[in-house]
Amino acid sequence: MDALYARHRDSLLRWFVRRTADTQVALDLWAETFAQSVAGWRRFRGATDDEAAAWLYTIARRQLARYHRRGSAERRAMRKLGLERPDLDDALIAEIERHADLDVLRRDVAVALATLSASVREAVELRVVQELDYPSVAELLGISEQAARTRVSRGLLTLAEAIDLSAVKEALAR
Amino acid sequence: MTDRRSYEEYLDEFGERLTAVAARRRRRLVTRPAVLIAIGASAVAAATIGVAVVPGGGQLDPVARASEALAPSGTIIHMKLTSTMVATERNMKVPDPQTVELWSAADPARWRYVQVIADDVKVGDDEGFFQGREEFAFANGVQEDYIAQRDQLKVTTGFRDPNASRVPGLMPIDPERDIRPLLQRGELRDEGEATVDGRRVHRLVGETTSENGRSTRRVVYDVDAETFEPVAGELELTFPVPRRDGAGLAGVRDVVAKTLFHVDVYERLPDDAEHADVLRIKTTAKTRVTTRSVDDPPTTSRTTTAAP
Question: Do the chains contact at B242 and A130, CB–CB below 8 Å?
């Protein structure tokens, strides 16, 4: 398990950050993916490096698909194992985003937003470009937090190819 | 106040927690022998972007000269830029053109950025939407954000890396922030001369293709053919989006999103005491100042009265 984590901790986190455009959500999904890999390692039947990597990313894609359906990250395995991810500050969030080149991604989102409907565009812009939290987005738009999450999730899904979220459709197709 | 951790330390810390819970779990699973999962180097590809760069040979010089023209090098670079989003689809509603003005200096890094938020653009924070003039500035590890409508100055202290302070501005792409790194990394090629607004320019172009090859990001940057100063440019994204009909998902179609920018003003000012004010935001005794550190938890802030 240590080797699995050591090999994929960085690439998997960048994978999630670029597919959610939301570092906090990406960290939740990343932590839950590794938690599920610990909880489910007995079911892993592969023997090769490639099979192990494919197994880990299968868990990751499933987490991502659930997030895009529900608008929130699952924490089932984290709770089951009593595992928490460490807290982090703004400076560290900025560092993670630099690793994932998220700044360029945000610029692309700003340009691609014109292709969305007004209500979805506003939600995505407030959350992804202006980086407000979901309660603030909901309050500004006069909608519930869940509705705000749904609009952002739908918007990102529509922009999936523009902002390198290709795995979203792949995951939803499963 | 949170202890400052690096990215690697953060990943190490979570790894240690993961190892601990995995060990606890192994101890409970006494009926099974431990299994070592061997992982090789062939990880699934991360979401990195492949950049198409055509070697230019002798054409590299315009790229180097264009990069130099954006480097402050002992001066303050002052630019005024207008960006225009292009309606590339029927019924696509694009915002009015946006104008921003920026000043930047190096050694040490300092900058100021002024934008005017148009009526049809929504910008907000946890206190609500605002419009009109907004300014950002950075110097000595401190970033400031001034909202004129509220006469409010938000101060964030403790930036150790100047690049960590971000400008969440309206300009989707600008030469100083976005194109200079592309030039420095050699990701733009010289496509020869063209004419823009009657001005002879060198056209520098770079394309990026996503890993699945289905979407592209194209940057065009025009520089004066003699001075290599910035003149204009564009960012164009082409990507497939889901196409729906009454029965649900009905395949995908390509959509183009495009924004243009024009450099209205470009000048170099002396980086001296006389011009120091162009890098500072002007406030008054009545300005409401909110200060926080980058090390504070995101929700922590305190409000004080501004110094004149």
Answer: no
